[in-house]
Amino acid sequence: MSNPLTGEVLLQKVKDLGNMPKEDKARACGYATKTKGGVDRVNMMKFLNALIDAEGIELDGRNKDANGQGGRSASYRIAVQANGNLLIGPAYTKQMDLHPGDEFQITLGRKHIKLTQLNEED
């Protein structure tokens, strides 16, 4: 299948597949690809997210931007880059309504970092 099923078509297909294992359902709905090595790979996250979208469930309580563009959503996970930096991307700064030049105080904990936004008076 070239395009994975979505919406009502996806929901109906999953219902029709009955008690089949979820990986097989995902495969039957078009959420599987072949790797370069010829191995069948099922993308369960895309399948499950498509099911959630088809059901109309809003998990994070936020809608797309007013202009209809969703963009990348925040995963709330980051990794230290090879140069030792931590990059907090635009999904987070936009959600927090931050702008270039906003300043923060950094407080280091044992396994966490706390950012406290500084006011212009600080």
Automatic annotation (TrEMBL):
GO cellular component: protein-DNA complex
PROSITE patterns: SPOVT_ABRB (PS51740)
Coiled-coil segments on the chain, per record: none
Keywords: DNA-binding
Listed Pfam families: AbrB-like
Every SpoVT-AbrB domain range: 75-120
Protein name per its UniProtKB record: AbrB family transcriptional regulator
Lineage: Bacteria, Bacillati, Cyanobacteriota, Cyanophyceae, Prochlorotrichales
